[in-house]
Design a protein that fits this description.
single chain, mainly beta, Beta-galactosidase, Chain A, domain 5, 3 helices, 23 strands, about 10% helix, about 40% strand
Length: about 325
């Protein structure tokens, strides 16, 4: 264990180790906070402020994370809820306003999904509200000119409410004197028993961009079913969105601060090429992502704040 990691772990124990139901953990190279209260358990990594596990008491797990994760510094976990910001997916597919806010050299195309997924965030606070509710707050401060792809002074905050349901609020506070533009997503991986028997309600009649069809626009007819690779951006979905399987508890997602919903499953061929992902993992996961993408990109004036929230619950 590196000296810096050991010192950081010791500091976290000194700050939070005496709180009920709080355990500071080391997963290979990555530090995490594990929460256990009377209502639920959860694990949140400092790298990327990435939640990897949540389960309400007496209910199935609500979050999927690959058993093939490598837990390396600088490598976001495959699963959980990565935070994507200040662009989503392929940088060049983002609006020109977003690209202008995130400059880069012509020979340095930024990696997908932004850069905060592999940054170490600050664990600011853990608050035990009562026996059934624990709130974690993590932040990431970006000074003006500090980052090659984001020259604007900005403060990010991720607040996790661990209770009978899971709520994550991702806030962006523009501390600069310029209006900025960005896309973002809470890239939620959900567990399913069998993707081919899974249906998603709340998307019927929505228009969507099919990323596998050169981002052409289509309209959803009825509930969404799966029989192949799926990568779509839906606009103006219903609230909640519900993931259902026969004889299995359903998962509900309520969201605010967004009009975009991404649905993704890599299916067979792409599963073979993904890092930290077993070739059969596509059968047991589905991404439903609360987002602001494309025409839903955020324009944030100086000193203003934007919040993106998702609440996830599993039926009994």
């Amino acid at each position: 264990m590196a000296v810096e990691t050991g010192q950081q772990m010791q500091q976290l124990y000194q700050q939070f180790g005496e709180l009920p139901g709080v355990v500071i953990e080391l997963h290979k190279a990555l530090l995490a906070v594990h929460i256990h209260n009377e209502a639920a358990t959860a694990t949140v990594f400092l790298q990327g402020a990435q939640l990897s596990q949540y389960q309400a008491k007496g209910r199935p797990a609500s979050i999927w994370c690959s058993d093939s994760c490598d837990y390396k510094a600088g490598s976001p976990l495959r699963g959980g809820i990565p935070i994507c910001w200040p662009w989503f997916g392929d940088f060049n597919r983002n609006p020109t306003t977003v690209q202008a806010s995130a400059p880069h050299a012509q020979d340095q195309v930024p990696s997908a999904h932004g850069f905060v997924r592999n940054q170490d965030w600050l664990l600011e606070d853990i608050k035990a509200v009562d026996d059934n509710c624990t709130i974690l707050t993590l932040s990431l401060a970006i000074a003006a000119g500090e980052h090659i792809h984001w020259p604007h002074a900005t403060r990010l905050e991720a607040v996790f409410t661990i209770s009978t349901h899971l709520t994550i609020t991702f806030s962006v506070h523009n501390l600069s004197e310029q209006t900025v533009h960005f896309t973002n997503a809470l890239h939620t991986y959900l567990p399913v028993a069998d993707i081919s028997q899974t249906q998603v309600t709340g998307l019927a009649n929505c228009r969507y961009l099919d990323c596998l069809d050169d981002w052409q626009e289509h309209h959803q007819k009825g509930d969404l079913l799966f029989n192949g690779e799926t990568d779509r951006i839906y606009y103006d979905a219903a609230d909640p969105i519900i993931v259902k399987e026969d004889d299995k508890p359903s998962i509900k997602l309520h969201s605010s601060g967004s009009k975009s919903t991404v649905v993704w499953n890599p299916w067979i061929d792409k599963a073979e090429r993904l890092s930290q992902f077993d070739s059969q993992d596509y059968l047991s996961m589905l991404c439903i992502e609360t987002a602001n993408i494309g025409e839903d990109a955020v324009e944030l004036a100086p000193q203003q704040r934007h919040q993106l929230t998702v609440t996830i619950s599993t039926a009994l």
